[in-house]
Amino acid sequence: MNEMLVSVAVALLGASLGWIALFSGVVAPVSFKDMDHGRANRHVRRVMKQGHTVLALLCFAGAGAAALGGAPGAGVIAAIVGVVILLAQFALAPRDDDRPPPGGKRKLQTARVVAAGLTALMAPLLLVAIGMAIGGV
What we know:
Number of helices: 4
Strand content: under 5%
Radius of gyration: 17 Å
Helix content: over 70%
Oligomer: single chain
Number of strands: 0
């Protein structure tokens, strides 16, 4: 049973890693290459808003499978990655008080760059979690 849960965890975390690689290596660069800047920016924000919930759920499911399969360290790291993915999505969420602070502006482009960077930075952590799950740590 434990080997099966670890295998499920590795598969789910591998799917999460593939999702991040697809977004960071294909979707975002091709969008900015083939579209004008405004449309590409909106496209990448929309993809992140729609896809990051599923990505976080994959991470949380992998975390649960790893923890139940006897690799609690991998489960903790995968859960942390899921939380960071949700925080990256939150950075792009519209605010109720969408008015900028006095003397300032809300820069959505900066929020998109930060969210995309956080997403890409989670790939090495997912690799570590996959290795820890395989090692049973």
